[in-house]
Amino acid sequence: MSRNISKPLVYIYIISLILHLAVFSFFLLKQGEIGGLFVVDASDYVGEAKNIADGHGFSVTPEAPYIPNATIGPLYPLYLSIFYRFTGHFWPAVLVQNIIASFIPILVFLIGSYFILDRRILWGAALFSAIEPNLLYYTSVVASEGVFIVLLLLSMLAFIRFLKTDKKSWLIVSALILGLTVLSRIAIQYLVGFLAFWLLVYFIKKKYSTKVIIQNLAILLLVYFAFISPWMIRNWRTFGHTELATTGWIDLYTRTGSSVRALVEGTSYGESYHRQLQDLVDQGIIKDADEREMYGFQFQPLLKAQTLTLFREHPEELVKVSLISFISILTQDNTYVFLHQAGVLPAVPGNVSPSLILFQKGIRGVVATMLTLARNQAYLVIYAGRILWAILTVLFAVGVYALWKAKESRAFISFLMLVIFYVWGISIPLTASISARYRTPIIPIMSLFIVVGAWYLAYRIFSRYVSPRSQ
């Protein structure tokens, strides 16, 4: 890498590191380790990490008997446990995580350099990744994003390098890191199947021989499964199942099912969620209305049957809920969460979804609700963030269009879009519980297209358009 390229990247890394350490230090010093760094689902990661460090295995149970757990990937709690074992605290692990996550802008630059030759666009995308609030927040606290996103980007970078060089060693590296990525966030587990199909189509279009196609697909799949197989074997020995996690049908029953029910019954998501759990209590399946009771593999067939029955009975509501989810994953913004935790904004009773109100009360209901909520400064931030991300999504689409025009870049673009659509797809079942957190893994990649889109439109508006690629 030439000096005139590396120097700005060093500056961007320093900016990213300073911002990460500022967020980390602010929450740690002001609110302490538990109040400042333990957010969202941190309790599961922390509880399991403590048990690993104390020799009780992968369990979130705080006391004996330590019931084995399979709701989260093993990598992040294992990472946390190493630091907890030697220091008795989790903040050192988060500190190192911040240092590692600060490299995300560099990885964005390197990935983009394979199909964008204008360094200004690459620097802009890297800078965007360094300062984007949602990405910054969730990689600065106890959350798997700080490890997961870096691994995902490294795997993508190695895969793109394989496409560029045709060297099998890069495919091996990509498959290995993808295995690690899955063990840090189980939801990404099926990406390898889509990736294998994409690679098959790519090889056929490139007229590779059957032998080479089989060799490369075998490398991808065998290396990947060899890496995740220890966790599959553990689950088989412990639970009698080879699935990597137990949360799939839980999410569909509690999140998607609750949202469908909310539309059918005209209630709020929260009310429908509690009714879904209460139904299981009434059937004697669980004792308390707590979804944690359903974390075992034995509950999955029952949840699957009840969820599919609900979907078959209300297909129209399911389509509407899926549309709401897709809009939400594109536009949700959690800057409010960050500012509220920092003490800048007051708490609000809930993040009201305009899309849900639209289907329940129509356009007048949306306008009336939005005007009422706009009197609260917290809601102003929430909906200003959604408007901003709606604009950024448009720029993203424009960027995809602009880059797709260059035929030599289409392989890279289609690969990146595969990853983006996969993340969008696995987020849709979360429906009304979707937050911007579920978009953070792809914000770094989206930043490339967003900056290209802004560049493209700026030159079109001023009638001086020059392709973002070198001519």
Automatic annotation (TrEMBL):
Membrane topology per record: Multi-pass membrane protein
Claim: Transmembrane is one of the keywords in the record: yes
Residue span, Glycosyltransferase RgtA/B/C/D-like domain: 74-232
Superkingdom of the source species: Bacteria
One GO biological process term: lipopolysaccharide biosynthetic process
InterPro entries found in the cross-reference section: LipidA_mod_glycosyltrf_83, RgtA/B/C-like
Principal subcellular localisation of the protein: membrane
Keyword RNA-binding: no
Localization in the cell: Cell membrane
GO MF term (any one): pentosyltransferase activity
TM region(s), chain numbering: 9-29, 90-115, 135-160, 172-201, 213-233, 380-404, 411-430, 442-462
Pfam family of the protein (one): PMT_2
Keyword list, A-Z: Cell membrane, Glycosyltransferase, Membrane, Transferase, Transmembrane, Transmembrane helix
Cellular-component GO terms for this entry: plasma membrane
Protein name: Glycosyltransferase family 39 protein
Organism: Candidatus Sungiibacteriota bacterium
Lineage: Bacteria, Candidatus Sungiibacteriota
